[in-house]
């Protein structure tokens, strides 16, 4: 909707970023009865919810139905969140900051935390809005308060991460929801290679024109100068994101891990958005340099925060969540102002290959090939690390060095792919899952299968995006996200 109706939906962008600007008391009149109902419901749920702080066995021994209790608690949280978002938009990080500050201040019982968190959250949001109005001047009218709280909350989360008590390295309990017996990997790889070749020919030779569908012929061969770079860039980006996602999922033994969650793509996106808005007439090469600097700045933050913990995967992913939240805040502030350059930002964020020329395509293809070859020596580590820290150490793996090296490789892969197709492609999460689903289990096989699937999906997504609403286009990253989201929800049903 934003791609095709950016100017008409500028008000929606401001609301979605969490604007507290009101024209009367309608918002208050809508919220206060819902708030009263929520407070009463929360009060009645206090004692049952306190039981959830015990382990499942202890809670069940007290006669508590955990399923119904969790459903009631989640239902109340969803009701409160939906009520707030429907009136003032998305308010970032208040729900994270207030409970953690109250807990660190000494509140231990659930009743105390609930009361003081509510009061502190109100104070934090009101103070942020008042300071924005006091010192923001005319700009304050175009900067949503929710975006500011998100920008302030991201550093808070980064500060909290080293203080969190996590379970540490645990070997996976099983192969997971996507583990099955399948034909030989060599046959699967050959089939995927043929499918990739077919998708490439489809993307290059089949299209639509004013007279409908047609095959490329010598008479209209000049169209290849636009199609070939897009197909090459889509395939290279799919390759890099798929390999990055595979490494990250095996490194963390977490099927939800992806390059987007790590925060590298978010840091790259922040730098690119700032470059588009702040630099006078930036060229493509200037933006590539700015984006690369942003990606490596994010990498330095990841390394600095997680060095003492030995680069625990859980802390790395939480740091990535904080960077992604900061990216969301910057994006909201920049797009809410109504600047015409926001259309270019939105198109890039959606994962468009429209701006790729043959020079960029050759460069990104070469980088993808080199990084794919660099990945090969790490397959032994990727086979061992999912077994857990104790097993990895027993087999001679130096965990800190292995994790740092793999993290650097993931950062390079993600940064290069993000510069081409934006940060929202879903391929880094989807391709490793599908590779495991069809039978690629060992690290080398998994990397090969994910790479082929990633390239196949991105090439198909680019072609579908060009054809589905011709003569208009839907960016390849957006098409891949729609496919990936549907697939992942199907997969979650089997958990």
Structure description:
The chain is mainly alpha-helical. The protein has three domains: 20-88; 94-165, no CATH class; 191-263 and 344-492, ABC transporter involved in vitamin B12 uptake, BtuC (Orthogonal Bundle), CATH 1.10.3470.10. Helices cover 70% and strands 2% of the residues. Strand 1 and strand 2 (212-215) form a beta hairpin. The longest helix is centred in the middle third of the chain and has 29 residues, at 224-252. The chain is globular. Residues 171-180 have low confidence and may be disordered.
Descriptive labels:
495 residues, mainly alpha, ABC transporter involved in vitamin B12 uptake, BtuC, 3 domains, two-stranded antiparallel ribbon, 2 strands
Instruction: Please provide the ordered H/E string of secondary-structure elements.
Output: HHHHHHHHHEEHHHHHHHHHHHHH
Supply the CATH class of the largest domain: Mainly Alpha
Task: Order the strands across the largest sheet as they lie in space.
Answer: 1-2
Alpha-carbon Rg, integer: 24 Å
CATH topology of the largest domain: ABC transporter involved in vitamin B12 uptake, BtuC
**CATH-derived architecture of the largest domain:** Orthogonal Bundle
Helix count, DSSP H or I runs of 4 or more residues = 22
N-to-C span: 32 Å
Number of strands: 2
Describe the main β-sheet briefly: 2 strands, antiparallel
Strand content: under 5%
Global morphology = globular
Overall pLDDT level: 77
CATH H-level homologous superfamily name of the largest domain: ABC transporter involved in vitamin B12 uptake, BtuC
Helical amount: 55-70%
> Spans with pLDDT under 50 lasting ≥5 residues?
171-180
- Given helix and strand content, the structural type is mainly alpha
Number of domains: 3
